């Protein structure tokens, strides 16, 4: 078979028009399409078993956590406690059940969620194991590290407190 070649060069607009069919939906058609897509997604989601749904939620949380860590922009409302709460929700556990699962006291879970207590390395490893290695301990650590860096950068009271321990600071020009 021979292919017929076009001798005249095409503009970028002509190429786009040839490759992408024009779609102009009215507001009503767009709403109908959105509803149809939502219905399709619900049917697919309902077809998943409970274990598959839980794995999907955990993977979704891992992606959100990794994307947040990679932004390098700490947001105080998205601290360790926030993501821990999202994890407990994705794992479909109650706080008391989760505390038993990872062998910590239930008040420790509450204090972590309310940002009254800092996580230790053991907890981050237990979270990795609890998630079936879906969310690595290093991601929890990086999140905590971001939070700690933010606190060090922004805490004026800590700087004033620590200033009392420095006897002779260097007079260095920036």
From TrEMBL:
Protein name per UniProt: HTH cro/C1-type domain-containing protein
Source species: Mucilaginibacter dorajii
Lineage, top ranks: Bacteria, Pseudomonadati, Bacteroidota, Sphingobacteriia, Sphingobacteriales
